[in-house]
Amino acid sequence: MFKKILFATSTTEASDHAARVAFNMAQSYDANICIFHVIGVPTRGFSQIVMDVKTKEKVEIDDEYIAWVKEEIMVYYSKQLEKAKSYDIKVAVGFPHREILREARNNSPDLIVMGGSTGDDEDSVYKKSMVGSTLQRVAKAAPCPLLVVNRPAASFWGGISKVVFGTDFSKASDAAFKFAVKLAKDLGCELNLFHALDISSLHMGRLLTQDEIESQIRESLRCIRGRYLDELKGIKDYSFDVWEGLPYIEIVKYAREKHADLIVMAHHTQKSSNEDARLGSNIEQVIVRAGCPVISINK
Amino acid sequence: MPEGKFCNKKPVETEEDLKALLGDTGGKKYYEEMKSLDVDTALLWKTIGNTLKSRTKTWLEICAHCGMCADSCFLYLINDRDPKQVPAYKIQSTLGEIVKRKGKVDNDFMHMVMETAWAKCTCCNRCGMYCPHGIDMGVMFGYLRGLCYQQGFVPWELKIGAGMHRVYRAQMDVTGEEFVETFKWMVEEYEEDYPGLEVSVDKEDADILYTVNAREVKHYPEDLAEAAILFHLAGENWTVPSSGWEQTSLAMFAGDWAACKMQVEGVYSAMERLKPKRMVGTECGHAHRATVIEGPYWAGRSNGKPPVESIHYVEWLAEALRKGKLKIDPAKRIKKKVTLQDSCNYIRNHGLKDITREIISYIVEPGYFVELSPNREHNYCCGGGGGFNGIGIFRPQRNKALITKRDQLINSGAELVIAPCHNCWDAIRDLEEEYKIGIKWSFLKPLVISMVEIPEHMKPKE
Q1: A128 vs B: CB within 8 A
Q2: Fold for domain A162-297?
Q3: A48 and B215: CB-CB below 8 Å?
């Protein structure tokens, strides 16, 4: 199921945890791993000068420079590459999200793996011309599942045995569900289906009585079973749960409780966020907070 | 050595030559070779005889050296009122001198001419407005660049840029297939958010033929998606051509007259082939100048107009908002201090100053718009016009030139500047990087998309 992995990396510490997961997976599933690095962001009008994303220097890209950057990547990942069976190193010039999406469109990987935020401040080259983060933009438009490893805690991963699937009963969630089922079947792992009853914003400040909450939980449980049970044939271990609270917090708590090593969720925010919105949607919050990798599916 | 391997009088005609020239990183060998490039004085004088017509001749002769143009030139002001930056001096000491000497100038002289033509004038044409005789040094520098190009004295990036147009009919290495594929990709990426979003390629008799800047295709194709979304929401019958889609012309900045003609003829032939009612170009200033204002003359069109009515993006947008094809949600209008950068190429040179302000009246909450001073046709160049933005060897001069715009922006107190021109957008981006004044900048398209009302039947279901 994972034969081609596109590992999009800044080749800095921010991508180290993702690297561990990406190389692990490539090894476990005999996948080809493509290490993809965007060298620099074009600048200076029509000139040939780009801003190197790592050194923040203005450089002129030529074959020699590209060869040097590839060499640097080889050195940076030398340990992992020793064990890698099949890999490519590719570099590109452009805005990172766009070049990652272009590569994904051209080579149809089964999975894109990325690290979390580079945590850069205002001075980041990535933020020079485009608002919003690379991650958000890739998550919104990726043509295949996107696996994100944001926290170090999320990266100690010896294969997938327990998957949490979070749903909000949307159409997009159904697509994510299909992927979660296929994954659970192919890899023979446990699938925990989860819905969080959002009690934070729905009722405009009115406090729900405990009876109301519990009745809605029962209703959601009926709903989650009704919607997904038939599709779970062939999966040995599965469970359904509905908890109430702030959805992203509940999902993160639930995954921790279940010792999950992967969360699968749909990404279906309508618009790429504007400059004022921080990581807004539930999945983005889950990515930031989860103690395991998160797979985001948008179609 | 008369002709170098990289620096010579021959234009770049093939992909192979283009790659070779690009391989000379930063133009190091190119400029080294330029030091020994011969000037073909006979050819220079002959060309002047054929092309220096009465207007330019008159302008060179009637200049009274009154100095009224001095204060009109932002490069004069920013360079401590250096007399050598007075527009009249700049053109008299270069073109005027070449004519006086009947073309008999040497390599050193041509080096000086090149620097003057590309680093001391952005062809913003502001001086022409203040000259009592109406002498436009910008126009003359455009002409002078042509002479420089012919002799091989042209900045490395612009030799490449003109070569790109010759090889790809675009300012970057983007083919027609790549253009169409990228446009389709963008529509796919956004069609879930905007059901029914599509792009028709080579549709005949459409109301609008849309042309773009190759950089949108290469580096920020979101711009193509945004154009598609707004045409879609406005219910337009629009199309893009599979060839003749590039509206810009680095050949114009380079002074490569033959390439200018080739480039614009490609666009005109798309118009003739597809017979649209109108052509709309993207948010670019020099592209409009090249394809709509000057292009018809390069192509030898006797009426001085492109084959079909051709308008700038701001004209289309103003019309769509005026007629209610696009409706703005009043609650989402811009509510922070915002200003507008007037692009020389379609404001001063094509009179669209009121159109852009009409757009402002729809998208900015009353009370939040502030003008730069000066503004409209009196506005200063962004600091990077005429090719200045992209030329590596003139970077220090360009960065100094940005100070004019920087101070205008600071004095306006605006947080955001709307810059419906690629060149201005780049220059403001660069000035923020260079001087960090905390300004934000944007094209119109993303701003309008963030506040346009989506008709019920166009909303995504679920």
Answers
A1: yes
A2: Rossmann fold (3.40.50)
A3: no
Beta bridge partners of A192: A164, A239
Strands (E) located in A26-86: 32-42, 49-52, 58-60
Q: Do B390 and A141 touch (CB under 8 A)?
A: no
Question: Crossing angle, helix B41-51 and helix B137-151, to 10 degrees?
Answer: 140
**CATH 1.10.1060 corresponds to the domain B39-154:** yes
Looking at 3.40.50.2000, 3.40.50.1360, 3.40.50.620, 2.40.160.10, the CATH number of the domain A4-155 comes to 3.40.50.620
A44 to chain B, any CB pair closer than 8 A? The answer is yes
Residue A89 has phi, psi (to 5 degrees) of -120, 120
Instruction: Provide the residue-wise pLDDT of chain B in tens; the chain has 462 residues.
Output: 589 999 999 999 999 999 999 999 889 999 999 999 999 999 999 999 999 999 999 999 999 999 999 999 999 999 999 999 999 999 999 999 999 999 999 999 999 999 999 999 999 999 999 999 999 999 999 999 999 999 999 999 999 999 999 999 999 999 999 999 999 999 999 998 899 999 999 999 999 999 999 999 999 999 999 999 999 999 999 999 999 999 999 999 999 999 999 999 999 999 999 999 999 999 999 999 999 999 999 999 999 999 999 999 999 999 999 999 999 999 999 999 999 999 999 999 999 999 999 999 999 999 999 999 999 999 999 999 999 999 999 999 999 999 999 999 999 999 999 999 999 999 999 999 899 999 999 999 999 999 999 999 999 876
CB < 8 Å to A130, chain B: 220
Q: Which CATH class is domain B325-449?
A: alpha beta
Q: What is the 3-state secondary structure (H, E, C) of A110-136?
A: CEEEEECCCCCCCCCHHHCCCCCCHHH
**Cβ <8 Å between A128 and B433:** yes
Shortest Cα distance, chain A CAs vs residue B66, angstroms: 36
Chain B positions in Cβ-Cβ contact with residue A105 (cut-off 8 Å): 185
Amino acid, single-letter form, for residue A167: T
Which residue carries 């009963």 as its tokens?
A169
Numbered residues of chain B with Cβ closer than 8 Å to any chain A Cβ: 22-23, 25-26, 157, 160-161, 171-172, 185, 189, 192-193, 215, 218-222, 250, 384, 389-392, 395, 422-423, 426-427, 429-430, 433, 440, 450, 460, 462
- Residue keyed to tokens 């809605």: A216
| Continuous segment of H or E residues that includes residue B404 | helix B395-412
What value of ipTM does the predicted structure carry? Answer: 0.85
Cβ–Cβ below 8 Å for A45 and B390? yes
Give, for A196, the enclosing helix (H) or strand (E). Answer: strand A190-198
CA distance A247 to chain B (A): 20
Asked if the Cβ–Cβ distance from A299 to B160 is below 8 Å, we say no
Please provide the DSSP assignment of B297-351 as one string.
HHTT-TTSS-SSEEE-HHHHHHHHHHTTSS-B-GGGSB-S-EEEPPPTTTTTTT-
Cross-chain CB nearest to B250 (options A46, A48, A60):
A46
